[in-house]
Every structure is written in structure tokens, then in C-alpha cells.
Give the backbone structure.
Amino acid sequence: MTESIRNIAIIAHVDHGKTTLVDAMLWQSGIFKANQEVVERVMDSNELERERGITILAKNTAIFYEGVKINIVDTPGHSDFGGEVERALKLVDGVLLLVDASEGPLPQTRYVLRKALEAKLPPIVVVNKIDRADARPQEVVNEIYDLFIDLDAAEEQLEFPILYADARRGIAKTSLDQSSENLAPLFQAILEHIPAPAGDPTDVLQLLVANLDYSDYHGRLAIGRIFSGSLARGDEAAIVKLDGTTQKTRITKLYGFKGLERVDADRAEAGDIVAIAGVEGITIGETVTSVETPRALLHVPVDEPTISMVFTVNTSPFSGREGTYVTSRHLRDRLKKELLTNVALLVEEMDTTDSFKVLGRGELHLAILIETMRREGHELAVGKPETVTRQVNGKVQEPVEQLILDCPAEFVGVLMQKIGTRKGINTKIVGHGRPGGRARLEFTIPSRGLIGLRSEILQDTRGTAVMNTLFDGYAEWQGEIPRRLTGSLIADRVGRATGYALYNLQERGELFIGPGVEVYEGMVIGENARWDDMEVNVVKEKKQTNMRASVADEAIRLIPARPLNLELAMEFIAEDEYVEVTPQSIRVRKKILETNKRPRRHRPRREAGNERVPQPVG
Ligand SMILES: Nc1nc2c(ncn2[C@@H]2O[C@H](COP(=O)(O)OP(=O)(O)OP(=O)(O)O)[C@@H](O)[C@H]2O)c(=O)[nH]1
Ligand SMILES: [Mg+2]
């Protein structure tokens, strides 16, 4: 036992305030100086995390409170990054389960709590955002008990302490009427209720690698927890690889954590979370142990991916204009590198060496990877996301999810119909009966039916619906789900789009590009309102025959284009289309670019309520 250490992970549904609570814990433990400028949600340190305001990668920090070192792992709440939570739970001895005082437990609360209970980690429940005007902390506490019981929590797991918090102001209390000015009650609860790490410092060394990092001077760093024994800089150690083989190495550098920094250490022992160098080639899940008596820790695999996309080299005529990395070799190396740290990702080889099947936990999981790659200078093309099916007793099964929608009551009818056509089965309707009249709808739905659903629902409900999903296992293949019922408007030649040509096309559907944009043959420039594809000339110039015409030209009123970002494009494309991704551009294209070589689309089955009609703008 190492009395002076506690290891905790903070887990919750997305946006319930985990990273904000870590801010307050860092401030109140004196990590920052009083006048230091520190950004909000400081742990969300990578560019995409800051832009999107969500946590993507689990990260660890450490603070000291009353002489005890508290290692804290902040985890993402979005379901696509559940693999990160699974990874984090291997490092800790307990969890802080945060629940929004108004929203109550949501699908990802259930997922992360189930993982924590399975790992036998004692929880501390923190009902956060008690300052919200619509906070209902008492009810939420009851819902949390219901959730624990529903998840078959053991008797002792039900005896969790409850704290009420306002993470933004850095206040926690053990009862709603207690007066508190800070997080002291929370720190006390951590010291009291989270067990000190077990593990004998005099036993054989066992360090489980849970994350990788990189240092310019020291190469690959492995971040992990010492489960037993101790380790000093300069020690010889053995790495037990995932395939069971053993490899000898020397620990050239050893770090502990303090706030946002890695600090040099000479020695560390059982219970602590450290980073080590001198471990080239090591990966997550491997054990660092003694050379003489190597003893590996069990590697528990994470949940399997549910969605796949084909990543291939960019073969568009504009390939190589913007990107630095464009070859299949670059693509392969980059994906291989990603596999080292992205624990829930899988990559499969395909028939051609130019393409890879990349499997992840959801559209966002893959979109974040693609977005990261384009920012690094990669160019690539990606196909339509598909769900991962499997064969059981000769029958095809597909992933299904629980879908929970919270929306104003007036939209219930529209949403029920929409989700019905996507094979969603309604399991529950609850009217909150509160002012504003919001309803909560629950469904089980094939993961397939969710692709592109979010943006449609936001459009249908004018941005008022909140949608949450939770992977719910596999079920028999649910039959065909009608695909996009609109076709594409496709450029039939290379050139620069003109206002004149676009003006004459905008009646046809919705355009993704404005005048001046360069196009090529086979590039999709808009969504056709009809079901079929249509080739169009977008580079046509108006003949300048007389003065009056050119004056009339200036009066052209173009409806503003609706440019597609990566996620919208991923949702939009059909089976015979790719999204072309480059550092500066997102384009949709036909897989077969030449008009005369492309097979025609078949007329899709028409179902009521599923037609997407372009919305007039302005
Ligand atoms: N009113 C109120 N807002 C809060 C509180 N705690 C956090 N928030 C806000 O909630 C939003 C989400 O906070 P985050 O800390 O990013 O939530 P998170 O749980 O880390 O989110 P993910 O990591 O993406 O799952 C931010 O706008 C915070 O300012 C609180 O106690 N009260
Ligand atoms: Mg966060």
C-alpha cells in the first residue's frame, strides 16, 4: 500500500463538466500561481479539442492535497471515444462519476459506469452544475441509484458518497444545504473513499503501459502505472510484448507528473503513474517488468469497432496541389502510427495496396482522425461509412444502438416517422411535463440508421433536439434502410465555376460551391432535388453579346452555397462517391470520374416522409 497516492479517473456523459472540474482541482491545489494566465479547460490541450469544446483523448495530471499525490485521469464523454475511457480505467483505483444536475444520467453515463463497475472501481458520485436554473439534484440522485441497480451493482458499490458541485466556481459540498467555498469536501472524499493503491514496492516490477507520448530528445515515452515493485532511472528492464515475446531494455528517463508538467524523477514505486523513456517499439497494453523474473500483466482488449470506412489515396485531378503526403506509402505509415495510440481503432488491408479499411467506434471517431491527418498535410479520399456486421450461425448480425432524443413535444410526430423509416423501434416516450413541453423519446435502431441522422434531426427541429446514442450489442440484420433519396449534381468538365452557370443551376437543387471555385469532371457540386444524378456544366460563360446583357449579369442573385464540411460530406456521400480530403479542401466526387464510364444510378424505393427537399435560403 502506498498511503500517499490516490489514482482516480473522472468519467461522465459528454459536457457534464469533467474538464472544468479538473481546472478547479488544479487551481485549488496550488498548481498555478495566483496571477498566472490559464485558459479554461486547460486539459483539452489539442487543437481539435479546443475548437470543438470536447475532450477527445484521455489525459493525466497530478496534484498534491494534504501531502497526498492525486493522479487524475480526465476522460472524454463522447461515446465515440469510449475506448479512451476503457484505457483510462486500467490506471486507477476509483472514479468520480459526474452527472449533470439537470440532465441526469444519459447514455454515456451508463456506459462509463458499467465499465467502472465491471472493473470493480469504487465510485464517488458528483452531481455537477447545481447552479443551473433547471437543476433538479434530488431527482437526479434517485435516477443515479436506479442506474446503479439497473447495472446490477454489488451491495458495497451502492454505498457511494455523493457530492454536489458547481465545477465552474470550484465548489463542492456533501449536502445541498452545507455552505462551502471550495472543493475541500471533494478532496476529503477522495482521500477517504478511494483506496490507496495496492501493490508491494518490494515485489517484482510490473508496469502496465496505458498511453504513449513522444519526446524530441528521448524518443518514445510510455505512460503507465506501476502495479508492483519499483523502478529507477538507468535500470535494466524487460518489455513483455503483446505477442508474448520479451525484449530487454534500459530505462533512460523516468518522469512523474505534477500539474500539466512531466517532472524528472530518480525513482518511482508501486501505485504511481509515470512516464518512461528507452522503450522504443513499446505499445499500449505491454508490461515493463524485471529482466530476471519477467511477469506480464493481463492485457484486456477494448470493445470492438462498429463502423468502417475505406481510406484510399487521392486520385482526383487536383491531387498533390495542397498536401505534402499523398502516396499510399504515406497513408499506410500514418495509419500504422495511429494504431499505436488509438486503442479502439483497427485497420485492415484490402485487395489493392492503395486502400485500407479503417474501423472505429463511430463517425466522429473516424472524422477526428481524418481531420488530424489533413492538418498534418495528408491528402486522401474516403468512402461512405458502413456499419461492421458479423456472421453468427450463418446469419448476418449488425450493431444496434439505443437512441435517446430530447425535443420539444411538437416535433415528436416528425421524428417518430423519420426514425421509423430508418428501422428504429420506439421503446419509450416520456413527456417531462415541464414548461416548454419537452419530450424524451427512446428507440433501438441499427447503427446504420444513425448515419447522417444527427444533421437531419437538427434541421427538422431547428436545432432544438438533443440526440444521444449508446451501443447496445448486435441484432439480426434489419433489412434495407432507404438510402439518400436525392442525386448529385456533377461537373462534366474541368474549369472554374461561373456565377452565370450556377445561377441557372440553383433551381435544380442545393449547391455546395460558389462562383470562382475550381472543379473537375466527376466532382459533385451540389445535391440534385431529384433522385438521379445529373451532369452539368458549371463553367459556362454568358456570351457577351450586348451592353444590356452584361448589365443584367450584375443583377444575378445567387443563393449562398452550402459548403460541406468533412462530417456533412461523410454523411452525404453515396456508395459510388468519395470525399476528397486535402489540407484546404473538402470535395465530394464520383468514384468513377469520367461521365461516359459511370454506370447510371437505379431509382431508389420511395418512402413517405423521407424525401429531402432543398430549403429555400434568404
Ligand atoms: N452552469 C455550470 N456549467 C458548467 C459547470 N461545469 C461545467 N460547466 C460547463 O459545461 C460545459 C462543458 O464542460 P466541460 O468541462 O468541457 O465538460 P466535459 O465533461 O469535460 O465534456 P467532454 O470532455 O467533452 O465530455 C462548459 O461550457 C462548462 O463551462 C457547472 O458546474 N455549472
Ligand atoms: Mg472534457
Notes: The longest strand covers residues 395-408.
